[in-house]
Amino acid sequence: MLTVEHVTKQFQETLALNDVSFSMENGIYGLLGPNGSGKTTLMRVLTGVLAPDGGRVRYDGIDIRSLDGQYRDLLGYLPQQFAMYEDFTGEKFLRYVCDLKGIPRADARERIAESLPIVGMAGEEKKKIRKLSGGMRRRIGIAQALLNHPKILVLDEPTSGLDPSERIRLRNYLLNLSKNRIILLSTHIVADLESTAHHLLLLKKGVLTAHGAPAELLQKLSGQVFTLFCKDEELMQIQQQYVVSAISSEEGGNRVRILADNPPPGARQTPPSLEDLYLYYYGETQDA
Ligand code: ADP
Ligand code: MG
Predict the structure, then answer these.
(1) Is 138:170 a contact under the CB 8 Å cutoff?
(2) What is the model's pTM?
């Protein structure tokens, strides 16, 4: 079990993490929040890359600072910004990471061979990194995080640059892996977590504003999400009056999905979705 206790981190005038506490057991944890909300900072603290100003992270009760190398052996980490040697092939890069992680040469070949198909890169490993697309680089980045069979897998925006089918493949693979390890992944794309994350962590301006199982969090919104039909000329007014989570055009007008305490007449209650939840906590702006 991994516990984060009262973690605080300040950069000059920015309070990037403000008294964050939660714990994780095996399963997939989705860290959600707009850009600048503190996701990367939290992951850097969790992986021991960055020391917090206050608070601590414990693994099975022991402060990770005193575990040091032992803790690193348990970790697989995909940073958000990830430098790669452009002249290396994917395979050579992965072999290099195996060396860094102290994986014996005899095992490295096998570890690399099993990681490549997971990220859909089997057969592409002889290509130079320089020649790879953004999505392919990201997939090699994910592969390197898997090489040491980590008990704790931390992926900072793993889906950035991936196309929809690559996202689905990653999602399914992570589900399989999560049975006996902790997986923490960050995203600002709600759909990445739909039907995957066992737990959600919602960061807003460095504060953990909500966390729990998706169904639990959605419960808070029940009775507040509605759909209604409106004509084109009414749409503007609806958008000004309510928080609108979706609009689709229909014969003669629009179907609008809104969050409201007092819905207009004719609105029909509907079960909340993660998109609604995101809007509820973060509003319609993309600011942290
Ligand atoms: P996210 O990953 O959610 O986009 P970050 O953790 O990268 O958020 O950033 C949280 C806040 O901390 C932002 O306001 C960012 O500008 C600031 N920040 C992050 N890292 C640094 C740093 N090394 N120096 C100064 N400010 C930083
Ligand atoms: Mg980030």
Answers:
(1) no
(2) 0.91
Task: List residues, by chain if needed, whose CB lies under 5 Å from ion ligand 2.
Answer: 39-40, 80
Q: Could you report the per-residue pLDDT of 188-246, keeping only the tens digit for each?
A: 888 888 778 999 999 999 999 999 999 999 999 999 999 999 999 999 999 899 999 88
Contact 267, 258 (CB under 8 A): yes
Mutate to test the pocket of ligand 1, among 15, 41, 205 (most ligand atoms within 8 A of CB): 41
**Residue 18, ligand 1, Cβ within 6 A:** no
CATH code assigned at 113: 3.40.50.300
* Ligand 1 nearest atom to the CA of residue 44, by list position: 6
Answer yes or no: are the C-beta atoms of 225 and 263 closer than 8 Å. no
Q: Is the beta carbon of 33 within 6 A of some atom in ligand 1? A: yes
Ligand 1 mean position, distance from CA 38 (Å): 6
Question: What ligand 1 atom has the least distance to the C-alpha of 12?
Answer: 25
Structural domain range at position 262: 223-271
Pair (236, 176) in one structural domain: no
Token pair 């070949």 is found at: 109
SS3 content of the chain, % helix, strand, coil (to 5): 35, 30, 35
Pocket of ligand 1 contains residue 34 by CB under 6 Å: no
Dist CA 49 CA 39 (whole Å): 14
Q: How far apart are CA 14 and CA 210, in angstroms?
A: 21
Could you tell me if 165 and 227 lie in one domain?
no
| Count of structural domains within the chain | 2
Side chain identity, residue 168: I
Backbone Cα Rg of the chain: 21
Please identify, among 217, 241, 262, the residue that sits at the C-terminal boundary of a domain: 217
Instruction: Tell whether ligand 1 has an atom less than 6 A from the beta carbon of residue 144.
Output: no
